[in-house]
Specification:
This protein is of the alpha+beta class and about 300 residues long. The chain has helices spanning about 1-10, 10-15, 20-25, 40-50, 55-80, 190, 260-295, and strands at about 105-110, 115-130, 135-140, 150, 155-160, 165-175, 175-185, 200-205, 210-215, 220, 225-230, 235-245, 255.
Length: about 300
Amino acid sequence: ATTPSANTTTPHPISNAAMPSANTTTPHPISNAATTPHPISNAAMPSANTTTPHPISNAAMPSAKTTTLHPTSNTTAPTNHTTPAVHPTTTVGPTLSPKPSPPEIGNYTIMEKEKICIMALLGTKLIVKSKEKKESYFNIVPNVPKPTGLCNEHTSFLHLGFSGGYANFTFTKDKSQYYVSATEAELDPVRLEIKSLNEKHHGKIEKQKLFSAKQGNSYKCKSKETVHLGEPLDLVTIGAQLQAFDFNNGHFGKEDECSTDRNRRIIVPIAVVACIVGLLIIAFLAYLIGRKRSTGGYQCI
């Protein structure tokens, strides 16, 4: 009775319970959603095959392609359009104008042996008169090209050149003062491509005493000053401050005011005072006349 009972009890728990439990427990933590409702061995096999390839191939590829292409194509396109737009603006130059306009103030400095020998702040324009007495105006653009000059002990030279001409100033040192002894200018309409003029205009005056100041001082004139260089050509300066020779630490010396500014500074207050006095006199006379008329209407009894 003991032998058959031992043979029938041992095979049943080994083959039916242990084998499927080992196969079904390993795939469940790997898969995310498909394996949870089916704990049997038949549902575990397809879930392991379907879950692994989909998140790797479908999610990574489109995200890398869409984010990298768009910013690179948008930023490089506008850079190609901005570069050629700068070049046409550099070719525009000054020309004659039928109406006057204030010239730009230029800052000019001439060095000699690493020391300043000429300093100039001024706006410059040329006036051309035609045979019909019509005036045309040409403003000299500062530092186009850069000014040049020469300096000696008693003579200094400032040259303001441009594409269609030049303006020159010669400074002379004489005893206790200095001044501009010669002024020269030229305007070539051919080089400026001015169709209204067909000849070169040139003018020069010498042995003059213009823009004079004491040695070590600077000449200053805010007003407009006109230098007649000849029949067709005039040179006009405005907002000028000039100095040649005897600089102190590279700065302008004491200002010597021009006669035009000085007269204007004196005449304007005098004119204001005269107007006030005139108004007071008129008011006083009106008061006397009104009082006389009011007293004349009464008669003594």
